[in-house]
Amino acid sequence: MEESLKRYVDSIIVEPVERRQAPSVPSMNVTAWDAMTTTACTTALEALNGVASNPSGMAVCYNLPFLDNTTGVFEADLRLYMIGPPTGDFANIATQNVNVGLSYNGATVSAVNASTLASGMAKRSDVVSLISWPRADQLDKRQSTIPQIAQSYAFVGRINANLLQANMGTQGLQKVLVPTVTLTAVNATGQTVNTTLSSQEATFVAGVFATQVTPTKSQVIPPIQTLVVASESPFIVPGLNILIFPIGGIITGIWTILFIATIAYGTVGRMQFREQFRRRTARATKGSLARI
Asked: How many other β-carbons are positioned within 10 Å of the β-carbon of residue 150?
């Protein structure tokens, strides 16, 4: 059996990096947050059925444990999950040759110190080794659909002041707070390859915005037959009832009535003129006859 594919993420590049001291955020129950987020991320990513949107075979689960709408300070939780084996340019790439890039459009962030993070969270035992992901033919059907966490990161950042003054709504904040995650690697031939991970697969499934975002689980539109005829229901012929107020029909009906009334008025007038003409002609004819 061939050696399992070797990969992957051992460093992260944050762009832009906040040079000054990172803003402080309130403490939280990290253990409870980790358990809740893990469940939410796994549930959302299982809907992908092991099909990755990029050749790296990875998917992003991104959430905000904390956000202050007044100061713009936020804390971010970024987790990379393996949902399938790497393909294409990302197959057989060594661990040290892959970097994770993170960029925000309208915010600055800095990574949380590893010792700080470790002090609040017990060491994870379920993190998958990034160099032990098996080949596609070594996965059974069940394992291929179960996301496995590859790496997790924590960040503290702040939204740009000019954006806070613009009084953005929920959708505006979400656009600013969702980062662009890219993977950059160097293959065996020395060529640089990269890919962008989708931010629509498992974003805001826990924490801030969790109840305000449409679930990422895919929904299949039912065929048209199921929209017309439901199971064990009588068939209803469409078009037998008027479902909207017929304004156009009323206007057309009024014009039709006026048109018919005009034609009828002219016809009656001609008939009356014909009868009058016949009577006048008859009287004139009788008046010209000689009397005996």
From this structure: 22
DSSP state of 68: -
Closest by alpha carbon to 81, among 37, 42, 108?
42
Within 13 Å and on the Cβ side, how many CA atoms surround 278? 6
CA 234-235-236 angle, to 5 degrees, is: 110
- 76 backbone dihedrals φ, ψ, rounded to 5°: -120, 145
The two tokens of residue 91 are: 């197959």
Instruction: Please state, in angstroms and rounded to a whole number, the distance separating the CA atoms of residues 219 and 33.
Output: 28
Q: Which amino acid is at 40?
A: A
d(CA 42, CA 123): 19
Residue 189 confidence (pLDDT) above 50 = yes
Cα(228)–Cα(76) distance, integer angstroms:
46
| CA end-to-end distance (rounded Å), the chain | 140
Q: Tell me if the pTM is above 0.70.
A: no
Token output for 98: 């892959």
In percent, how much of the chain has pLDDT > 70? 69
> Which of 272, 108, 268, 96 shows the shortest CA–CA distance to 177?
108
How many C-beta neighbours within 10 Å does residue 97 have?
18
